[in-house]
Amino acid sequence: MKPYELVLFDFDGTLYDSEAHFDTYIDLIGTHLNDAQAKQLRKLYERTRAGEGVLRIGEWYDPESQVSKPADATHPSNRKYYLGDYWWLIHTLGHRLGVTDEQLIDSFFRTRDYMMTHTDEIHLVVGLKKWLQTVAKRQKPIAILATNSPEPDSVAILQQLGVYPYFTEMIYNARKPTHMPQILEHVSTTYQVPPNRMLCVGDHYYNDIDPALQFGADTLFINRHRVSHPHNSTYEVHTSEALMEYLTDILAT
């Protein structure tokens, strides 16, 4: 890999690959449903994870047909949700069963509160803490975090995972992808790093990868769900182990 001067990380699904909190999210959405609907939500989620449902990660949710569909070559503007990860997939399952946006947001924040106090269920990518420690000691490359998640729970989780001190800057409530161009411009200008010396790492294609490519930065797409839509990235991995192989290569340059 190139000797990158700055690496911009996503948080959820990037720094950790555990998924136990999604069960909590399902349960909390279920509190806004009757017992039969809550059981149906759980069943739909399990079927979807098994690849047997009507929704798939990497597709767009069509509210009229209430199923997800593959994207065209261009972004389909008439569809409501891009199912880039399990957060959005579960959100959409709840929406299909009549849970309101306000109730879904409430369930999301309650899940984040749960994660703050159950960090034993969140497993940092193996080897990443040592990598961040080495980077902080060398002061190269600069490690930046940009997440759509709120600050209080993100800080608590990062502290419990033991990696909070090793990021030069952390951007919360990032509102990706809308604000991703401004974030990229900010870090490039602030740290005087040209786009071609920046690497953006994330698991959500339209939040993390596509905007970075348009900015001129290199990208590392963690494509755990093997999305089927047309996509491009400088590097692509399917596992956390492969992610660490690439990151380790950066230290060797």
From TrEMBL:
Top-level taxon of the source organism: Bacteria
Record-level Gene Ontology MF annotations: phosphoglycolate phosphatase activity
Biological processes, Gene Ontology terms: DNA repair
InterPro entries: HAD-like_hydrolase_sf, HAD-like_sf, HAD_sf
SUPFAM superfamilies membership: HAD-like
Protein name: Hydrolase
